[in-house]
């Protein structure tokens, strides 16, 4: 971990893969995101935590335009997010997303779930797409489930398939929206292990999660959000041992000692 | 009979057990409470009073073959001879008598296509298959080529008209309905407004009105010299009607999908049309198979309303067959015959829908 990343993460803006500046978003009267500035370097792993309703999911959903924002600017890999459908689709091709509820396609087999986007969006030949799908299934350690339907798998297996589905598009960034929150406790580890493996391979990741163990072991930076603001950000070491704001301290005390 | 001898101990307890078993079943299912017992008795009384006379009328006292209507009138039972006399008119209307093998072949082709659609292996080419089948059917009915004499469509009638109106109607209405349903949920306000207007206007009007409009009003608006065939006009009216109803059914399916499915498709960069075609519609349509088939069945029977604008479908043909002065008054037989034909097609659709439902839920649990 470089010293620069620890002290001044926002300064080296030019080559950052995600550049978020001055983003504001309202749901009706409710101000969900307030003046968000965030730059993400290539290969950086960021964990975003905070109480529910703090806007952390909304923030990462803005990055692939599942949510619109009213003010500010988001640039992903040199492409600015605008109302232009072409731009939005170009960004979505490069940004993978893993959802809390997995959102696998229940009418397709696991293999078809994985090959669908590569075939239709990337125009890959079917054989090539299937080869890649099997490679990633191997990597998330469920190669034997390729011909089953998602409904026949456990929650943990479904989430690993969902991760593999995103990886098949060879994304440059992966967004994780509370990937383990809907899982039974005994399945959390298998999904986290997959994500740790991914982090070790150098994938750029933004992870919204309450798994502080994961944050400690792989994150380059931990962000704490509350009421639509980024209250505090730091390396995991500093963040957990020396939180600056009272809100962070309160949050940490609530989730670490229950 | 050797069953109940004392040398053979097996059948006796077996038989007793079976009798006891049936009695227990009757007691548990038909007489388990006082009101169930009452219902059982009422239903039994009803059947005893209705079934024997019905059987007498349909079979015992019926006349199956005679050229003389007076024989029929003297008989106490059904006059199936009337059907024997008139079935070709009921089935094929005023189509030239010697050429009626052509509509017969057309009906058989349609039934063969329906049967073929029950096999999953044909789904790959289901669209070309039906287009080819309907083209051949059209050529058969119209003629004018391959040495077939030309028969103008005013002379078509009976079952081919009913099948043509419903099959072509549903085949064309279905894709329109999908577009309307998608349009009604579109983010584009103009598209949404157009779709809502169309659906609400068509659904707010009885089919009869639409048929009258198409047959009486529409020609008034067309410039002089331009005429659209009457059958085609009725067909268009029926398509418009079916599309509006199907659109609402399909919209229900679209709404039943969790938002996550849309978001997952979006996040993969599929784009609107691929998202709809590959992810959303296959699931949404599978959910609404029962109401879709319900609409199909209703539509199939609604084709009989073309009667009022003088198109000769099977219902109109049946009514006309009854106007023959020699054979007046055998309406029970005539409507029973036509009813059975309608029932066969509707029952087929209903069975087909059950099979489709099973087929689409295979291997999937949520």
The helix/strand series of chain A, from N terminus to C terminus, equals: HEEEHEEHEHHHEHEHEEHH
The pLDDT mean of chain B sits at 82
Q: Approximately what portion of the residues of chain B adopt beta-strand conformation?
A: under 5%
Radius of gyration of chain A (Å): 18 Å
Strand-pairing-aware structural class of chain A: alpha/beta
Largest sheet of chain B: none
Termini separation of chain B comes to 57 Å
Across the major sheet of chain A, the strand order is 6-7-8-3-9-10
In helices, the fraction of residues of chain A equals 25-40%
The number of helical runs of chain A is 10
Q: Kindly, what is the distance between the CA atoms of the first and last residues of chain A, rounded to a whole number of angstroms? A: 31 Å
How much helical structure, as a percent, in the residues of chain B? over 70%
Q: What is the CATH architecture annotation of the domain at 77-95 and 151-360 in chain B?
A: Orthogonal Bundle
- CATH C-level name of the domain at 77-95 and 151-360 in chain B: Mainly Alpha
Regions with little confidence, pLDDT below 50 for 5+ residues of chain B: 1-5
Largest interface: A-B, 31 and 23 residues
**Approximately what portion of the residues of chain A adopt beta-strand conformation?**
15-25%
Can you write the helix and strand succession of chain B as a string?
HHHHHHHHHHHHHHH
Describe the fold and architecture.
The complex is a heterodimer of chains A (about 260) and B (about 375). With about 260 residues, chain A is of the alpha/beta class. In chain A, about 40% of the residues lie in helices and about 25% in strands. Chain A has a six-stranded mixed β-sheet with strand order 6-7-8-3-9-10, with helices on both faces. Chain A has a four-stranded antiparallel β-sheet with strand order 2-1-4-5, with helices on one face. The longest helix of chain A has 16 residues, at about 185-200. Chain B is mostly helical.
